[in-house]
Write a structure and sequence with these properties.
Elements: H1 2-18, H2 31-43, H3 51-59, H4 66-75, H5 82-90, H6 94-106, H7 111-121, H8 124-152
Helix pairs in contact: 1-7, 2-3, 3-4, 6-8, 7-8
Amino acid sequence: RAATVILGAVIIIWLLGSLPWGVEYASQDSVLGTIGGWIAPLLAPAGIGHWAIAVSLITGFVAKEVVVATLGAILLTGSGVLGDALVSQLGWGPLNAYAFMVFCLLYIPCIATISVIRSETGTWRWAAFSAGYTIAVAWIVSTLIYQVGNLFV
């Protein structure tokens, strides 16, 4: 069952990254990039407000491992180091990276987990609560880390 949910999510993400036809996959001009652009301002107080970061967090709903792969696909144009791309293209420092890492660790485990919560409880209410709660906790903790950290940096 989890494999079916993951496959469906991967197909949806691929479609969103590929549409409209003719744009570069997962570029800022794709539907996925546009959605990332809408979400990015919400992540700005946590120091992670960039469309590529938002897109990587969206794809992370499928599996957490996909977050880094998505960033690599979007930010690396050739052979390079993702950390260098985060610094040069996004202007990131250690505080941004730490806030992003904490956000990734605390937000929704994956879509398969949400699906299992739904099947175990028999309702989408607990699954939605779990998703919303973990996103809120991740945002609050990441924002605190970034904002308090900025007081000392």
